[in-house]
Write a structure and sequence with these properties.
By secondary structure, the protein is mostly beta strands. It has one helix at 8-11, and strands at 17-21, 26-30, 33-38, 42-46, 52-56, 65-74, 78-87, 90-98, 112-115, 122-125, 128-130, 141-146, 150-154, 157-162, 165-170, 176-180, 189-198, 202-211, 214-222, 236-239, 246-249, 252-253.
Length: 276
């Protein structure tokens, strides 16, 4: 039976749904059980979403899943069915979904299942645990040393001044400037309890800054123990460009741009996958 055409792409022709086979072995753990283990998963990349792994049904322990009455509709992929997961005394409702009769444009995920990332306990690519979401194979994160002078102004005060910055260029993100602690007025910073994870860089710690008679919560972050893929960032600190008064490079003020962290509040953090 032919699959139906998507109504979404006609209204939004620039929308992207890309499905490709992943070359990586991917595993999902819930409790002490491996729920999915596959060398034949596919990675779905979609506009305005992080990447998602979809697993062949044969590589999922369906004996731990029970179909629920939940369903949702996507104009680009179709109607999704849901399953809950049980292991021992623990059950998580509507943790798995599948497009059993997807639209023709998304036929590559037919008979595949996907898991809500945060409802699972552990994810692995090969034998390495990964966090937040799958790494996008089309995303670059380049950390490059620069001798250009970087100044950070906050609360009307110059909080940092460095000619030893590391510029981080990440696909789809503003340039971030990571600075050595010796070039920052650390007395104005106070360590907070906030931590977040990035699939490309590791676990981030945060600082608040007191400047100009104000306190700017969680406006600075650092990766004390970055992943092996981002070693240059160790012991460097970075300010949210969009929320300081100004960042100057060789005396020229840089455009702030607009991101989801503009007018940032700590409680809005949903993961540093978008922070670099």
């Amino acid at each position: 039976m032919a699959l139906p055409k998507s109504p979404g792409f006609e209204k939004h022709p620039g929308y992207m749904v890309q499905i490709e086979k992943s070359p990586r072995r991917v595993r999902v753990e819930f409790g002490s059980e491996t729920i999915a283990d596959s060398a034949n998963s596919v990675l779905l990349r979609e506009s305005n979403h992080v990447p998602v792994y979809y697993f062949p049904r044969n590589d999922v322990h369906m004996d731990h899943l029970s179909r629920s009455e939940q369903s949702t509709f996507c104009p680009f992929k179709g109607e999704a069915s849901y399953w809950s997961i049980s292991h021992g005394d623990e059950t998580v409702a509507d943790a798995v979904w599948s497009y059993e009769t997807p639209f023709e444009e998304s036929a590559g995920i037919k008979d595949y299942l996907a898991f809500y990332w945060n409802k699972m306990d552990h994810w692995f690519e090969e034998d390495e645990e990964i966090f937040v979401h799958p790494r996008d194979p089309y995303k670059r994160v380049d950390a490059i040393s620069s001798s250009r002078k970087v100044e950070v102004v906050l609360g009307g005060e110059t909080i940092a001044e460095s000619s030893q910055a590391t510029f981080v260029f990440e696909t789809g993100m503003p340039t971030r400037y990571y600075l050595p602690m010796d070039d920052i007025r650390m007395a104005a910073l106070k360590r907070s309890d906030t931590t977040t994870r990035c699939p490309y860089k590791g676990i981030a710690s945060y600082w608040s800054v007191e400047a100009g008679g104000q306190v700017f919560d969680d406006i600075v972050w650092s990766y004390p123990e970055p992943l092996e893929e981002a070693p240059k960032l160790k012991n460097l600190l970075c300010f949210f460009n969009e929320n300081v008064d100004a960042i100057l490079i060789d005396g020229d003020e840089q455009p702030k741009g607009k991101t989801k962290w503009s007018n940032f509040l700590a409680e809005t953090l949903d993961g540093p996958e978008h922070i670099v």
